[in-house]
Amino acid sequence: MRKTCLIIGAGLAGSAAAWELTQHGFKVRVHEQADVVGGHVRNEWLRGIPYEPHGAHIFHTADEDVWNLVTKLAAFVPYRHRVAMRIRSHHLSWPLQHAELSQLEEWPEIEFQLSARPPVPDSTNFETHCVSLMGETLYGLAIREYTRKQWGRDPDTLSASAAYGRIELRGDGHHDVFRDPYQGWPDRGYTELVEGLLERAELHLGQAVTHTDLVELCAPGEPVIVTSALDDFFGCGLGPLEWRGVRLKSELVPHAKLVQPAMVVNDPDATVPWTRSIETKWALERLHSLPGTIVMREYPGAPSKHYPVPDSAGANRALQRSYEHLLVQDARNLLIPAGRLATYRYINMDQAIRQGLDAARRILEAS
Ligand SMILES: Cc1cc2nc3c(=O)[nH]c(=O)nc-3n(C[C@H](O)[C@H](O)[C@H](O)COP(=O)(O)OP(=O)(O)OC[C@H]3O[C@@H](n4cnc5c(N)ncnc54)[C@H](O)[C@@H]3O)c2cc1C
């Protein structure tokens, strides 16, 4: 008899797990609460122009296996991601470049503060970490208000971990945001990639699954890969996990070819209600000369699960650990968490795929 597995969620993590298991002869049922697959990376097209309802997604990885898998299932075109940051009338590169700072009126102060930085950053919290990287003035211009808008809280209440790998002051003139050896954008969008991963799975759309549903949905001993948020999965029994959501509002600009200096423009101005604007068309050079573009603005503070909140006291991570403990305690089924929601971590797409593949391999090894 064929071995079986239940997967909750048809984002990249659940779909990658489904791919790996079905390749090894498993019969896999994927239950997805939405009416469409793809989760966060699902993209849409309007008049031949791509846009991303859940935010800009650029594929970048150093994981060769993951790159080989995604490029086998979808055609990727080369794209090197650039982000601009608007400070008054200036568009600076993001991550900030040392060589561009002299155009700011505050440069003498900034230069002095940079020369007085401590040798090791003070990682007491997000704010102390950033100030010790770039000085008070540059932090105030580029980071403080953006962070307040993004997280809806004072930066000194965030853990320094929110800055790791994201906040940088570069001196090497490398303007691409990412340094990974493999980077690109799928020519026909991410949804095609997810559909490819799910090709052999049995899909149940519009079906939210919680822990109590498992008695009906799967047999005792059957493995379950959970890619939904664990507080939802356990009916919020231990209380809700804190998330920061964003709302994306798109605008079609019918006659313009491209309207921004880069795919993403960050806006740290406290009087501007959005954090950044996104023009996904930048990713596909073959479209650049065509008229019509779509700009999406990201407004923070929506009731959706975009970013887990890394509070400096660590309360959210402690609650997540308690939910993970409930997973391990389940005596009826092997419950394996994978993906951004179930691990309550910001992870990139390649990591979500890797977690899905690893969860599947755990099941294959145990079978
Ligand atoms: C704004 C933003 C921008 C990003 N940009 C990038 C980028 O440029 N590059 C990059 O590599 N990564 C980026 N990421 C990260 C990327 O979005 C994630 O790594 C990836 O989408 C995670 O996939 P996942 O399957 O873990 O989660 P999801 O895509 O969220 O999939 C989970 C799925 O589970 C479903 N689900 C949830 N609860 C239930 C339930 N109870 N029952 C059934 N189904 C359920 C959901 O509907 C969803 O389809 C970005 C993230 C954000 C927030």
Automatic annotation (TrEMBL):
GO terms for cellular component: cytosol. Residues 143-346 form the UDP-galactopyranose mutase C-terminal domain. Pfam families: GLF, NAD_binding_8. It comes from the Bacteria. InterPro entries: FAD/NAD-bd_sf, UDP-GalPyranose_mutase_C. Gene3D superfamilies: FAD/NAD(P)-binding domain (3.50.50.60), NAD(P)-binding Rossmann-like Domain (3.40.50.720). SUPFAM superfamilies: FAD-linked reductases, C-terminal domain, Nucleotide-binding domain. GO terms for molecular function: flavin adenine dinucleotide binding; UDP-galactopyranose mutase activity. PANTHER family: UDP-GALACTOPYRANOSE MUTASE. This is FAD-binding protein. The lineage of its organism: Bacteria, Bacillati, Actinomycetota, Actinomycetes, Kitasatosporales.
